[in-house]
Amino acid sequence: MEILKQWSQEVQDSGFPLIKEFIDFLPNLLGAALLLALGWFVSGLFKRGTARLAAFLNRVLNTMLRRGGLAKLTFSSPIISLFSKVVFWAVFLFFVKFAAHALGLEAITDWLDDVVDYLPTFLAGGIIIGAGVLFSFLARDLTNAAAESAQLPENKLYGLIAQVATLVSTVVMGLNQIGINVSFLANMIGVTVGALLGSLALAFGLGSKTFVSNLIGSHYLQQQYKPGQRIRMDGSEGIILEITPTSIILETKDGRMVIPAKLFNEKSTCLLIMEDNNER
Fold first, then answer.
1. What is the CATH number of domain 226-272?
2. Which Pfam family would be a valid example here (predicted)?
3. With 0-12 CB in 10 A as exposed, 13-18 as middle and 19+ as buried, what is 165?
4. What is the pLDDT of residues 173-191, one digit of tens each?
């Protein structure tokens, strides 16, 4: 019996301090739980606000670009969902940090301090990359519109080049902002872009010689002639219907004739006197 009493006393002596510590720790535990619950609620508000802000920006951008005659440009639903989740967990991380501090988890608190300190830099890099994706589409549409208005061949190719160049530049800037060493990547991209531009320049110089000659010929041709005049060149005679950026269209007795503009720099041309109005 004496042994049982001694054992019971030992259990009480060892159990009561543990219970007392738990009771003393209980307010901190409840406070941490409340912080996490509040953080979950606030993070949800930020998530929904981010999605609504992205939808509002979609409407504003579409209105602005539609007035400029550009293609529709929007943040896609997966991108909006991804960015909203990033905002959610970024905000919730702050509350996790406060909860860990309330519980006295110093090791976790120190690690979360480093993560939170790095978070603005990471978000800034993500915003730069996201803006780069958006502006790459804008650069593509602007380049396509300019190339189409200039009646350049393969105008879609110029837009694609502008889009890729803008996207690559902003990705490199974003990674550099995050803290990733992009020196090797930038050098590799520079060499690749240089080789690509050199190849394009060589191909353009060799393959578009005739096209450039026609452009130059058409430029000077428009200064000397105008639609409605009758001309003769190399045995062909007709009335000018239209002068395009690369050719001239004549109405002859056999039908419409398209003559490359560069020929007017290489062969003699005669402006005929028309009998109906005596115009040279």
1. 2.30.30.60
2. MS_channel_1st_1
3. middle
4. 888 877 776 676 667 777 7
